[in-house]
Amino acid sequence: MSTPYDRRILAPFRGLRYTKPHGNQTAPPYDVLNTIQAQTFREQDSENIVHLDLPLTVGDAGSGAEADSLKNAEDVEIAHKNAAASLTNWVDQGVLGIDETPSFYIYRQEYSDTSGKRRQTLGVVGALRIGDPNIQPHEEITKKAASDRLASLNHTKTNISMIYCLSTAANLGSLLISDSPSSLDFTDEDGVRHTLQHLDSSTEIDALAASVQSAPVVIADGHHRYTMAKKYYDSLPTKIPGSDRIMALIVPLDPAHLLVRSIQRSLPSIGLTGSALREALEKVAFVTEDDPERLAEIAITDGDEEIGFVAEAKGFRLRPRPAAQSSSSSTTLQNLPAVWTRDVLLPAVKAETRVFHQDPNEVIDWVKSGEQAGAVILPPVTIAQITSVANAQERMPPKTTFFWPKARTGLVLRRFLDQENKSE
After folding, report:
1. Are 394 and 335 in contact (CB under 8 A)?
2. How far apart are CA 311 and CA 267, in angstroms?
3. What is the pTM of this model?
4. What tens digit of pLDDT does each residue of 99-158 get?
5. Which one, of 265, 321, 329, lies nearest residue 295 by Cα?
6. Cβ partners under 8 Å of residue 373, min gap 6
7. What residues contact 356, with CB distance under 8 A and at least 6 apart?
C-alpha cells in the first residue's frame, strides 16, 4: 500500500491558474526584479503576477512603493493587504480558476547556454511538506529582512511563487516525460521557452510522489521563502489546512537538467592599496595579472580553480595556495571558491562588505567607474560539488549558486483554502 499523500514529502495540490493563460501574465521571481523591471511587468499586463508578488502600497494601479523595499512595517502590511484583495477579485472575476482535483504540474524550460547549445530543465511542481527531515538547505541564508514574504502569507494565504529544489532520486528524470497536453507554452524576454503540463493521472502522480519520497530534497533557490513559510505555520494558533506545505519545483540533481551560474562579489571598500594589496594577494594565492574585462570568462568556466579579483583598475587571476585554506570550514567546503573568498581572500585584503550580483561584466564596470572599490569573480559551482555538500548535509555561503533559468512566477499558484478537505 502506498504512503498517503499527507505523509509524503511532495503531494499534489489544487492549483490556482489563469483561465486564459499567456506569457505576459508571468514574471521572474520577485527577488531578481529591480523596481524598474517590476513596473515594466505591471504595465505589460493589468493581470501580471507582479501585482500580487510585488504589490504596491496604493494597490493594483498607479505608482507606489513596492513591498520588498518598504522600511515601514505598516506600509508592508498595506501592500500585501492590497495584493490579497486583488487575488480575491481575480478569482471572483474568473481571471484565476481552481483546478478540481489535486494535481502535479510538469514544468519544462528550453534555452541556450553560454556556448549556444540548446538545453532544457525539467521538473515537477508540487506541495512540499515544511519541516520534513529529508529537506536540506544547501546555502546559508543572509540576514536580509523577509518581513514582506511573511506579510504575503499572512494576507494572501497563498504560495504565489514556487521555490526551486533538487532531488537525487535516481528515476525522477524518466518520470517527467508525460503525454498530457501543455496548458501554457510561451517564450520569455530572455528567449527561454516555458511549458506547463497539468498532471492529474493518479498513476503518474503516485509514481512521481514515490520517486521524490525516495531521496533527500535540497533547497536550491527560495531559502528565505521556505524559512518564512515555516515561521508562518509555526505561529498559527489554529493550523490552516494546506499551510503545512509550500509550492515547490523539484528538479533532478543531474547536469542534464541544470545550468548553474556563479554570483559575483562587489566590494565597496578595500583596506589595502598599491604594493600592500599585491603583497596580501601573493600571501594567499598564486597571482597572474590580466585585463579586468577578461576575468568575466571565469564566471562561465565550470570547475575552474581560478578566482578573479579586480581593484585599482587592475585584474588578477588567483589560484589559492595550499597553505592558505579556510580553517573554519569542513573539508567538504574548503575547496569551494566562495568559501575561500569569504574566509581567506576578503580578510587578507581587509574587505569587510560584500554586495552580490550575477553579472560579472557589471561588477567589473562598477570598479572601473569608481562606483565600487573591488570585485571578486567566481567560477560556477559544479553539480558534483553541490551533490557532495548536500550528501554531507553542509551549507555553502549565501549567494554561492545562481540556478538559471529562474522558475517563472504566475504559472500556477497554491491557495491554502483550496486545499481544505482535499487529500494531499
Report:
1. no
2. 9
3. 0.86
4. 999 999 999 999 988 778 899 999 999 999 999 999 987 666 655 556 788 999 999 999
5. 265
6. 267, 268, 269, 270, 311, 351, 367
7. 263, 264, 265, 266, 398, 399
The model's confidence at residue 69, banded by pLDDT at 50, 70 and 90, is low
Q: Which residues pair with 114 in a beta bridge?
A: none
Within the chain, all domains assigned CATH 3.30.1760.10 are found at: 261-402
**CA-CA distance, 247 to 103, in Å (whole number)?**
12
Give the chain's count of helices (H) and strands (E): 13, 21
- Residue 94: how many other CB atoms lie within 10 Å: 9
Q: For residues 172 and 176, what is the distance between their CA atoms, to the nearest angstrom?
A: 7
Q: List the end-to-end C-alpha distance of the chain, in Å, as a whole number.
A: 16
Contact 242, 126 (CB under 8 A): no
- What radius of gyration do the chain's Cα atoms show? 22
Phi/psi for 38 (5° steps) reads -60, -45
What's the maximum distance between 2 C-alpha atoms anywhere in the chain?
70
Read off the DSSP letter of residue 127: E
Specify the CATH number for 261-402; select among 3.40.50.300, 3.40.640.10, 3.40.718.10, 3.30.1760.10: 3.30.1760.10
Between CA 365 and CA 264 the distance in angstroms is 13
- 54/69 Cα distance (integer angstroms): 9
CB-side neighbour CA atoms (13 Å) of 269: 4
Rounded CA separation 69/56 (Å): 10
Going along 71-187, which residue ranges are E strands?
Answer: 96-98, 104-112, 118-129, 135-137, 158-159, 163-167, 182-187
Positive or negative, the Cα torsion across 51, 55, 58, 64?
A: negative
Task: Look up residue 11 and give its amino acid.
Answer: A
Residue 401 CA: distances (Å) to CA of 20, 59, 241, 383 = 35, 34, 33, 10
